[in-house]
Design brief:
The protein is α/β, with parallel strands linked by helices. It has 2 domains: 3-61 and 307-412, Aspartate Aminotransferase, domain 1, CATH 3.90.1150.10; 64-305, 3-Layer(aba) Sandwich (Aspartate Aminotransferase, domain 2), CATH 3.40.640. It has helices at 3-14, 16-24, 52-55, 64-76, 87-100, 111-126, 143-147, 152-155, 173-179, 205-216, 272-276, 289-305, 307-326, 353-362, 387-412, and strands at residues 31-35, 38-41, 46-49, 104-108, 130-134, 165-168, 184-189, 219-223, 247-250, 262-266, 333-339, 342-347, 365-366, 368-370, 373-379. It is globular.
Length: 413
């Protein structure tokens, strides 16, 4: 099928609104293959993937050792009986425990499902009912995850949502302190907000949140679905402040970019609810051999190569280079921020986000704006990139700014 035929099928059988939006944004090309940091469409065009599946492709596309491990599981037993013990699930749990310091893990199918599990666990173990989330937070689109997320435009059509939720300003420890009381089961926070606009909290914020949770006798849930597995220059972003959560959510890169998987890890104290009630929360496909095999290989690769070091070094280079380009256009770019290879470029106007994304696409570079802040262009390439990819990306960013500058001038006329 040619791209026009595929787009029509999207329109007829997937979602007409989505098809129209993709076409309007110039995103109606069709993926055909991918390798490492690059994607090719059906017309043979090569693109640098600088959005990386929103954090999925930490090891790049089609990492050989992950593919090999998944093929072994496919030939042996792709789905478990759910009656006997699953060896792959046990092995991945051990490897993650050794890598992260969390004692127990449950494996799910997505990040949203991991968040739902974390919320249930916090209620079950503490016996409390209230949750505190953050402004601009994004934890997923299922009901519980949406309830503790922080942008009303996505929540209003689905109200009433989960009761007993308080939202406080991200980065404001004093506001959190005022909201805490004996009804709070958990505070959930992203160490760095991804969809919120790549928002980095003030230094010491996570330590203050940890202390406040301890004082209030509630759990701290860290959503590391996007920041985890090396993305920010540490294996987990919590390490930047030497903080440990009671419950941690993982996903995206954990499947090695090959098989979807989500995970919840916790301390022995926090896990007590699931120990007392081991069958109270389950998933038909959670922990299946295909996904956990991918996870085993991904953890082995990430830990063996200490890939977070490359994320830190390349992230510093990239952020500095982007800032140098942005300084030439202060009327277009407000700020370049982030940590490791999770970088946000905030434009001066919300209307600049979509055309900037389109202009980068014209330069064969894939980026995306963040859902909770459309003026922020998210740059989140695979953690395996080197100087060649940085040069490609910075050149595309420069040319896109030139085009955006001309567009802004034309609109003023």
């Amino acid at each position: 099928m040619n791209p026009e035929e595929i787009l029509q099928k999207y329109h007829d059988h997937i979602n007409p609104g989505l098809a129209d939006l993709l076409q309007l944004g110039g995103l109606a090309a069709v993926d055909e293959r991918a390798d490492g940091a690059y994607v090719w469409d059906t017309e043979g065009n090569k693109y640098l993937d600088a959005v990386g599946g929103y954090g999925v492709f930490a090891l790049g596309h089609r990492p050989p050792k992950v593919i090999e491990k998944v093929k072994e599981a496919l030939d042996k037993m792709p789905m478990a009986s759910k009656i006997f013990i699953n060896s792959c699930e046990a092995e991945l749990g051990e490897k993650l425990s050794q890598a992260t310091g969390y004692q127990y893990f449950m494996f799910l199918n997505s990040g949203s499902e991991a968040v739902e599990t974390a919320l249930k666990l916090a209620r079950l173990t503490t016996g409390r009912t209230t949750f505190i989330g953050m402004t601009n937070a994004y934890h997923g689109v299922t009901f519980g995850a949406l309830s503790i997320s922080g942008r009303d435009v996505y929540k209003e059509p689905f109200k009433p949502l989960l009761p007993g939720v308080k939202i406080v300003p991200f980065g404001d420890a004093e506001a959190l302190a005022e909201a805490l009381d004996e009804s709070v089961a958990a505070v959930i926070v992203e160490p760095i907000q991804g969809e919120g606009g790549v928002n980095v909290p003030p230094p010491g914020y996570l330590k203050k949140v940890r202390r406040l949770c301890d004082d209030a006798g509630c759990f701290l849930i860290l959503d590391e679905i996007q920041t985890g597995m090396g993305r920010t220059g540490k294996l987990l972003a919590e390490e930047w402040e030497d903080v440990k959560a009671d419950i941690v959510c993982l996903g995206k890169a954990l499947g090695g970019g090959v098989v979807p998987i989500g995970a919840v890890g916790a301390t022995e104290k926090a896990w007590q609810g699931f120990i007392d009630n081991p069958l109270i929360h389950e998933s038909t496909f959670g922990g299946n051999p295909l996904a956990t095999s991918a996870g085993i290989a991904a953890v082995e690769e990430i830990m063996g190569r200490q890939i977070w070091n490359n994320a830190h070094v390349m992230g510093e280079k990239l952020r500095n280079a982007l800032m140098n380009e942005a300084d030439k256009y202060p009327h277009l770019v407000k700020e370049v921020r982030g940590r490791g290879l999770l970088i946000g470029v905030e434009m001066m106007e919300e209307g600049y986000g979509l055309p900037m994304m389109g202009f980068m696409l014209e330069e064969k570079t894939l980026v995306a704006y963040t859902l909770n802040n459309p003026r922020v262009i998210r740059i989140e390439p695979p953690l395996i990139i080197g100087d060649e990819e940085i040069q490609w990306l910075v050149s595309a960013f420069h040319k896109a700014l030139v085009k955006l500058d001309q567009l802004a001038k034309d609109l003023e006329v």
